[in-house]
Amino acid sequence: METSTGGAAPPDSSVVTAEGVAGDAVVVTGATAVPPASLSPSRAGDFMQCPLLYRFRVIDRLPEKPSEAATRGTLVHAVLERLFDAPAAERTAPRAKALIPGQWDRLRESRPEVGELFADDPEGERLARWLAQAESLVERWFTLEDPSRLEPAERELFVEAELDSGLRLRGIIDRVDVAPTGEVRIVDYKTGKAPRPEYAEGALFQMKFYALVVWRLKGVVPRRLQLVYLGSGDVLTYDPVLADLERVERKLLALWEAIRLATETGDWRPRPTKLCGWCDHQAHCPEFGGTPPPYPLPVRAPESGGVQQGRMGPD
Ligand code: SF4
Questions:
Q1: Cα distance between residue 100 and residue 40, in whole Å
Q2: What residue ranges do the domains of the chain occupy?
Q3: What is the pLDDT of residue 197?
Q4: pLDDT for the residue 129
Q5: With a 6 A CB cut-off, is 47 part of the ligand 1 pocket?
């Protein structure tokens, strides 16, 4: 594995996407709580980070406020994607930066709530700083990749594949490059910093997840997985082999079983870590003195094996 690393990264690059939201919903059939039929890397990551966080997001669907970091990530992704509409020779840093105002307008139109981020900024100073940070991230990309020499096969590609177990995997891949030889490279942009080497495996999980989906869909193991960290100016790459993807599939099936069990029993344990600092749900989390909302699904009583309507209290 080739890695180049910088400082500690926040959890993910904080990009707001709709990935996995609709398909991740839990449904109730009769007296049985049925776990969501699909998994995205984000939601799988949530469960691995903290089962209670997964519950809050997927089952309770508690609202989360847009953050400046996440919204900036969404904006930068949109700019990098749109830049490829231009002819190769015109894919320059000035042109990319010039796309920012228009993409910001589009983002506010499609998601009016992000406009509230700067509602208390009548002079527009914070907004100007925020836009300048987005410009810096876009500019840094040109030190890492040369878009005039790239012709992506796909951008913002929604992918979905069903495993033999019935579990559907889904997600959105930022960019897919296909070489004339047919070799596939999967690329993901991160607006945060690259993780330290000891955390690189976690960062690659999402990419291996996508590689597994591509393999399942096309029967081709991607030649390279590439994470482009705009926050620190690093590129992390990994060349997977089939055994990697089989390992990820086994891991996802185990995760799926754990989610199924938690859905059935209502036992969603909080798992506090320093990532709690980024969690929007401390007010509902027992680790921070909060109480989760009543569990909205039937739960199986441990002693009887039956199903009863229940409320999940703090552990
Ligand atoms: S605050 Fe921490 S422990 Fe509580 S739900 Fe959020 S991530 Fe989990």
A1: 28
A2: 68-114+124-147
A3: 86
A4: 96
A5: no
Q: Does residue 187's CB lie within 6 angstroms of at least one atom of ligand 1?
A: no
Write out the H or E segment, with its range, that includes residue 237: strand 234-238
Q: What is the full DSSP assignment across 69-124?
A: HHHHHHHHHHHHHHHTTS-GGG--HHHHHHTHHHHHHHHHHH-GGGGGGGTT-TT-
In the block, residue with structure tokens 């009887």? 304
SS3 190: strand
Structural tokens at position 4: 């180049």
Residue 5's closest CA among 192, 134, 145, 173? 192
Closest CA to 280 of 113, 52, 13: 52
> Measured in angstroms, how far is the CA atom of residue 119 from the centroid of ligand 1?
28
In this structure, which amino acid lies at residue 2?
A: E
> Closest residue (by CA) to atom 7 of ligand 1?
276
> Span 122-139, mean pLDDT?
95
pLDDT band, residue 298 (cuts 50/70/90) = confident
Q: What are the CA-CA distances from residue 158 to residues 17, 161, 169 (Å)?
A: 11, 10, 11
Average pLDDT, the chain: 87
Tokens of 139: 């500019």
Percent of the chain with pLDDT over 70: 84
Residue 178: pLDDT band (50, 70, 90) is very high
pTM score: 0.84
Q: Is 281 in the pocket of ligand 1 (CB under 6 A)?
A: yes
Query: Which residue lies with its CA nearest to atom 5 of ligand 1?
Result: 53
